[in-house]
Write a structure and sequence with these properties.
- The complex is a heterodimer of chains A (352) and B (247).
- Chain A is α/β, with parallel strands linked by helices.
- Helices cover 41% and strands 18% of the residues of chain A.
- Chain A is built from 12 helices and 14 strands.
- In chain A, the strands form 3 sheets. Chain A has a 7-stranded mixed β-sheet with strand order 3-2-4-5-7-6-12, sandwiched between helices. In chain A, strands 9-11-10-13-14 form a 5-stranded mixed β-sheet, sandwiched between helices.
- The longest helix of chain A is centred in the middle third of the chain and has 18 residues.
- Chain A is globular.
- Helices cover 37% and strands 15% of the residues of chain B.
- Chain B has 9 helices and 7 strands.
- Chain B has a 7-stranded mixed β-sheet, sandwiched between helices.
- The longest helix of chain B is centred in the C-terminal third of the chain and has 19 residues.
- The chains are: A alpha/beta (352), B alpha/beta (247).
- The interface between A and B is large, with 37 and 37 residues.
- The complex binds thiamine diphosphate, iron/sulfur cluster and magnesium ion.
- Thiamine diphosphate (TPP) binds next to helix 3 of chain B.
């Protein structure tokens, strides 16, 4: 069997294997082990590790690294990610790729030290100024995180934009067996700033913003068309479909398996790209489905809005959307199953 | 004998600052020094947000426009990825000492091997002359129309002095001015010192430049120069606060 590794260490090692050589960050629970690990690991491979004075500064340091064409990343948790929004928006405006790992801790403002999924809307909508998107990828296991970190860097480079690995305190802190790919060598991106003035970088004051706006829209449309990722179970005959991502998605995967074994016609959509939202998965659901149930680790329900919006433009626009939210913790299979039965028995009112 | 003064090739395009503005002189000196050191194909002009942002379209070299106040952080990223390239961080008093004081201080603290140029015109020029961290006691600005009251706003910040006193390993720290030919020549020497220190991997270098902003000071260009020579240099002494150890 593969060696056990702690989540945060696995994220850090995955980024190294994916060819990243530059990290800047600021400590925060529950993601600090990422930078602790890198403070040793990056110098080992001749990379750059910077403990910056704040999350905001680390994002701006990354801006210089990414503009230099170097594969770079940062990590933080919820309130720390708030400070990165300024830099994320500026990097988006400058078409600079990066990976930012958000090991979400539950809560608003300073938040708590508990696990949760309270940053869904902020991360999928973008918390900085302007009209931009970032890829938002959410793993349900450490192995999937390792794969998504590599994929996240590739997507960021391909489209000249940022990727957020949106994960949870519980995944960052838990240990699982995990295999890593071989070290990848990534060249500096073509057309980056290296002092030689090999290309003219147009000043922000002189850019053709109208043309860029049209191009951005086309780019985002093409991403929505081509880059959706999800996992699914039994959508063809499902009477109810549970939708959950990250560790809630992992719990839901188990719950759906058991419910099926108990004779319930239930299906599962586990979004892996939170942006672009996997709308295509919903198109695969049979048209006689009775409803969708969003399972989330927060208090108010966030992804449930994306489910409702997705259904609105499909042939299932009249289907009810329910939610089961569980702040402070990963919902257990038992709880998910119990809430499914309550929905089925008409004891829970739909949200949309 | 007539001396032929050539405009640096990387500045062949026109730059538009107000008449009598000091930014033009600073940009010109930086370009001259880069060319004298033959670094024009191995330099990154990293620029904050202020009136000097108007200069980047005209600088024909690698350049990058950062967010307001974040230039020293971005320059850190550039330098760590391009250790043999001359990295210049061009900022203003508002950019470097107020909104970006954390980034400025921390780059100095980490002893990043970059050269930071802060043009101190004692106000936020670009946004219409509001009070900045270097506005002088009693100075009228659009946010201190009755004159800066230091009892409620604090005393003007002396960043070079602070860096020189706090960070013994900083490579080079000086304050210059653009008000007379003598001072311009002196400033050019300071800039060359800072660049050479950086190219020799000696660490962080910082040059503050006292610079006129006739438009917002509501003075003629000549009155602005006089104000610097008479009033500012008393509070902001010119000279080197930290000289290079190696030459
Ligand atoms: C986050 C943010 N806040 C405010 C501004 C508006 N702004 C642009 S330039 C500037 C002040 C620039 O002052 P300084 O750095 O001293 O440059 P100067 O124009 O005086 O040379 C301000 C406040 C901005 N661009 N970004
Ligand atoms: S407003 Fe002041 S700093 Fe800005 S260009 Fe005019 S004179 Fe120069
Ligand atoms: Mg100013």
């Amino acid at each position: 069997m593969e060696d056990m590794i702690k989540g945060n260490h696995a994220f850090a090692e995955a980024a190294i294997r994916a060819g990243a050589t530059f990290y800047a960050g600021y400590p925060i629970t529950p993601s600090s082990e990422i930078m602790e690990y890198l403070s040793v690991r990056l110098p080992e491979i001749g990379g750059v590790f910077i403990q910056a004075e704040s999350e905001g500064a680390s994002m701006n340091i990354l801006t210089g690294a990414s503009a230099s064409g170097v594969r770079c990343f940062t990590a933080s948790s919820s309130v720390g990610m708030t400070l990165k929004q300024e830099g994320i928006s500026h990097m988006a405006d400058s078409y600079l790729p990066f990976l930012a790992i958000n090991v979400v801790r539950y809560g608003t403002g300073l938040g708590t030290l508990d696990t949760g999924q309270s940053d869904y809307l902020r991360d999928t909508r973008g918390g900085g100024s302007g009209d931009y998107r970032t890829f938002v990828l959410s793993p349900y296991s450490l192995q999937e995180a390792v794969e998504l970190i590599d994929r996240g860097f590739e997507l960021a480079d391909k489209y000249g934009m940022g990727t957020i690995l949106h994960t949870e305190a519980a995944l960052g802190q838990m240990m699982e067996p995990c295999t890593f790919p071989e070290m990848k060598k990534v060249e500096r991106r073509h057309g980056s700033i290296d002092g030689t003035y090999s290309f003219e970088r147009i000043s922000p004051l002189y850019r053709d913003r109208l043309k860029e706006a049209i191009d951005e829209k086309a780019k985002y449309d093409s991403i929505k068309e081509n880059e959706q990722m999800w996992a699914e179970e039994s959508l063809e005959d499902a009477e109810y479909v549970i939708v959950a991502y990250g560790l809630a998605g992992r719990s839901a995967t188990g719950a759906v398996k058991q419910l099926r074994a108990e004779g319930h016609k239930v299906g599962l959509i586990r979004p892996i790209t939170l942006w672009p939202f996997p709308e295509k998965a919903f198109a695969k659901v049979n048209k006689d489905v009775k409803g969708f149930i969003s399972v989330e680790e927060n208090a108010t329900g966030q992804m449930v809005e994306d489910i409702a919006l997705t259904l609105k433009k499909s042939d299932k626009s009249s289907k009810p959307v329910y939610m089961f939210v569980d702040a402070f913790g990963v919902p257990t299979m038992k709880k998910i199953k119990a809430n499914f039965i309550r929905v089925k028995n008409g004891e829970i009112k739909e949200v949309y | 004998m007539a001396i032929a003064k050539k405009v640096p090739e990387m500045l062949s395009k026109q730059i538009s600052f107000c008449p009598g503005c000091g930014h033009g002189v600073v940009v010109r000196l930086l370009a001259e020094c880069v060319e004298e050191l033959k670094m024009e194909k191995n330099v990154i002009f990293n620029v904050g947000v202020g009136c000097y942002s108007l200069a980047t379209p005209s600088i024909e070299a690698d350049k990058f426009d950062t967010l307001h106040g974040r230039a020293s952080a971005v320059a850190t990223g550039f330098k760590r990825c391009n250790p043999d390239t001359l990295v210049i961080s061009y900022q203003g008093d508002g950019d470097a000492y107020s909104i970006g004081v954390g980034e400025s201080f921390s780059a100095a603290y980490r002893n990043e091997n970059i050269t930071v140029i802060t043009v101190n015109n004692t106000n936020y020029g670009m946004t219409g002359g509001q009070m900045s961290a270097t506005t002088m006691p009693g100075q009228k600005t659009t946010t201190s129309p009755h004159g800066r009251d230091c009892n409620t706003t604090g005393m003007p910040i002396k960043f070079p002095e602070m860096v020189a006193a706090t960070f013994p390993n900083a490579a080079y720290v000086a304050r210059g001015s653009v008000t007379t030919p003598k001072y311009v020549n002196q400033l050019k020497k300071y800039i060359l010192n800072a660049f050479k220190a950086q190219l020799n991997n000696e660490g962080y270098s910082l040059i503050e430049v006292l610079s006129p902003c006739p438009t917002n000071w509501k003075m003629t260009p000549l009155q602005s120069l006089e104000r610097i020579n008479k009033e500012l240099v008393d509070y902001y002494p010119l000279g080197e606060f930290k000289t290079r150890k190696e030459k």
